[in-house]
């Protein structure tokens, strides 16, 4: 049994508190700030990516050695494909001809 | 990463079967990333095609969206704590944290269902416009995943109560943990890309 010396899940608490703060920052940016719409969209998307990284690294043990390099490999390629699919669709269907 | 983590592998990784299952689940998650990417792409392309249906900016409510986000975020946290407790070998606190996770998942689902019913009452349904089709398919696919996760978790709780923490049950709990955190990752992007942007534009 892999008993740990630590009793408090510090990583999880840090991740949770940061995520809650980032959620409120994103909501505030979108609803209360007076930034131009483009800047709002860019900044809240950046905040979302940071939050996703928190989930992956602090909660999902992405860098844990147990499953080799697969987790990192899968998530990296998944993210690249997701970016190509979303950006590519927007380019071909909405913005490419402007 | 601390040194004890490097030396002693957690129970779920100790058998080859466990390791392979976890590796396989990561491959599944990569496929899920692509699935949701296609739905996000569809949503993004159909953004603004409202036809005669209501505009999302008038229907989305900041308060309930934030509540749903915080519920799911907290459930992801409690699920992470559950896996942490499992690795300490404590069945009892593992069960407690998983039950909290389950309750939060159920309340998230309740909010989502009442939200969808509210939209349908206002005239925004799957058939109303291209935009709402894309919206309901995207948010609905996530909701279906949550529903599936809730059923899965209930069955695992029964198995866990019967068998305790073994190399098999710990592997299953670890995998459902990955699944649950992943659903929160998807929700973060729905919260940001759909709700917040829908309320800004």
UniProtKB/TrEMBL annotation, chain A:
<dbReference type="GO" id="GO:0042773">
    <property type="term" value="P:ATP synthesis coupled electron transport"/>
</dbReference>
<dbReference type="InterPro" id="IPR050968">
    <property type="entry name" value="Cytochrome_c_oxidase_bac_sub4"/>
</dbReference>
<dbReference type="GO" id="GO:0019646">
    <property type="term" value="P:aerobic electron transport chain"/>
</dbReference>
<dbReference type="GO" id="GO:0015078">
    <property type="term" value="F:proton transmembrane transporter activity"/>
</dbReference>
<feature type="transmembrane region" description="Helical">
    <location>
        <begin position="74"/>
        <end position="97"/>
    </location>
</feature>
<dbReference type="GO" id="GO:0015990">
    <property type="term" value="P:electron transport coupled proton transport"/>
</dbReference>
<dbReference type="GO" id="GO:0009486">
    <property type="term" value="F:cytochrome bo3 ubiquinol oxidase activity"/>
</dbReference>
<comment type="similarity">
    <text>Belongs to the cytochrome c oxidase bacterial subunit 4 family.</text>
</comment>
<keyword id="KW-1003">Cell membrane</keyword>
<feature type="transmembrane region" description="Helical">
    <location>
        <begin position="12"/>
        <end position="31"/>
    </location>
</feature>
<dbReference type="Pfam" id="PF03626">
    <property type="entry name" value="COX4_pro"/>
</dbReference>
<keyword id="KW-1133">Transmembrane helix</keyword>
<keyword id="KW-0560">Oxidoreductase</keyword>
<dbReference type="GO" id="GO:0005886">
    <property type="term" value="C:plasma membrane"/>
</dbReference>
<dbReference type="GO" id="GO:0016682">
    <property type="term" value="F:oxidoreductase activity, acting on diphenols and related substances as donors, oxygen as acceptor"/>
</dbReference>
<protein>
    <recommendedName>
        <fullName>Quinol oxidase subunit 4</fullName>
        <ecNumber>1.10.3.-</ecNumber>
    </recommendedName>
</protein>
<dbReference type="GO" id="GO:0009319">
    <property type="term" value="C:cytochrome o ubiquinol oxidase complex"/>
</dbReference>
<keyword id="KW-0812">Transmembrane</keyword>
<feature type="transmembrane region" description="Helical">
    <location>
        <begin position="37"/>
        <end position="62"/>
    </location>
</feature>
<dbReference type="InterPro" id="IPR005171">
    <property type="entry name" value="Cyt_c_oxidase_su4_prok"/>
</dbReference>
<dbReference type="InterPro" id="IPR014250">
    <property type="entry name" value="QoxD"/>
</dbReference>
<keyword id="KW-0472">Membrane</keyword>
UniProtKB/TrEMBL annotation, chain B:
<feature type="transmembrane region" description="Helical">
    <location>
        <begin position="21"/>
        <end position="46"/>
    </location>
</feature>
<dbReference type="GO" id="GO:0005886">
    <property type="term" value="C:plasma membrane"/>
</dbReference>
<feature type="domain" description="Heme-copper oxidase subunit III family profile">
    <location>
        <begin position="23"/>
        <end position="199"/>
    </location>
</feature>
<feature type="transmembrane region" description="Helical">
    <location>
        <begin position="173"/>
        <end position="197"/>
    </location>
</feature>
<dbReference type="InterPro" id="IPR013833">
    <property type="entry name" value="Cyt_c_oxidase_su3_a-hlx"/>
</dbReference>
<dbReference type="GO" id="GO:0016491">
    <property type="term" value="F:oxidoreductase activity"/>
</dbReference>
<feature type="transmembrane region" description="Helical">
    <location>
        <begin position="91"/>
        <end position="111"/>
    </location>
</feature>
<dbReference type="GO" id="GO:0004129">
    <property type="term" value="F:cytochrome-c oxidase activity"/>
</dbReference>
<dbReference type="GO" id="GO:0019646">
    <property type="term" value="P:aerobic electron transport chain"/>
</dbReference>
<keyword id="KW-1003">Cell membrane</keyword>
<feature type="transmembrane region" description="Helical">
    <location>
        <begin position="131"/>
        <end position="161"/>
    </location>
</feature>
<dbReference type="InterPro" id="IPR033946">
    <property type="entry name" value="Ubiquinol_oxase_su3_dom"/>
</dbReference>
<dbReference type="InterPro" id="IPR035973">
    <property type="entry name" value="Cyt_c_oxidase_su3-like_sf"/>
</dbReference>
<comment type="similarity">
    <text>Belongs to the cytochrome c oxidase subunit 3 family.</text>
</comment>
<dbReference type="GO" id="GO:0042773">
    <property type="term" value="P:ATP synthesis coupled electron transport"/>
</dbReference>
<keyword id="KW-0560">Oxidoreductase</keyword>
<dbReference type="InterPro" id="IPR000298">
    <property type="entry name" value="Cyt_c_oxidase-like_su3"/>
</dbReference>
<protein>
    <recommendedName>
        <fullName>Quinol oxidase subunit 3</fullName>
        <ecNumber>1.10.3.-</ecNumber>
    </recommendedName>
</protein>
<keyword id="KW-0472">Membrane</keyword>
<dbReference type="InterPro" id="IPR014246">
    <property type="entry name" value="QoxC"/>
</dbReference>
<dbReference type="Pfam" id="PF00510">
    <property type="entry name" value="COX3"/>
</dbReference>
<keyword id="KW-1133">Transmembrane helix</keyword>
């Amino acid at each position: 049994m892999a008993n740990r010396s630590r009793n408090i899940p510090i990583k999880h608490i840090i991740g949770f508190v940061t995520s809650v703060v980032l959620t409120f920052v994103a909501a505030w940016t979108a609803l209360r700030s007076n930034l131009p719409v483009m800047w709002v969209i860019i900044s809240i998307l950046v905040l979302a990516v940071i939050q996703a990284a928190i989930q992956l690294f602090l909660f999902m043990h992405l860098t844990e050695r147990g499953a080799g390099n697969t987790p990192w490999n899968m998530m990296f390629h998944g993210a690249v494909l997701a970016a190509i699919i979303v950006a590519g669709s927007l380019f071909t269907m909405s913005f490419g001809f402007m | 990463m601390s040194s004890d983590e490097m030396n002693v592998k957690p129970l779920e990784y100790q058998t080859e079967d466990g390791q392979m299952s976890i590796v396989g689940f990561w491959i599944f998650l990569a496929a899920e990333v692509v699935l949701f990417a296609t739905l996000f792409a569809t949503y993004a392309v159909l953004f603004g095609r409202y036809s005669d249906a209501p505009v999302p900016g008038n229907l989305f409510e900041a308060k309930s969206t934030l509540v749903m986000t915080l519920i799911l975020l907290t459930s992801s946290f409690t699920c992470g704590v559950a896996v942490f407790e499992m690795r300490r070998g404590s069945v009892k606190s593992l069960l407690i944290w998983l039950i909290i996770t389950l309750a939060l998942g159920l309340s998230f689902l309740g909010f989502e269902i009442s939200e969808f019913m509210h939209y349908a009452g206002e005239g925004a349904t799957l058939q109303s416009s291209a935009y709402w089709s894309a919206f309901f398919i995207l948010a609905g696919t996530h909701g279906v995943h949550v529903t599936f996760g809730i059923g899965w978790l209930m069955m695992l709780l029964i198995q866990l109560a019967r068998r305790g923490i073994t190399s098999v049950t710990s592997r299953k709990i670890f995998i459902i943990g990955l699944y649950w955190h992943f659903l929160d990752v998807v929700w973060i992007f729905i919260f940001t890309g759909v709700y917040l942007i829908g309320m800004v534009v």
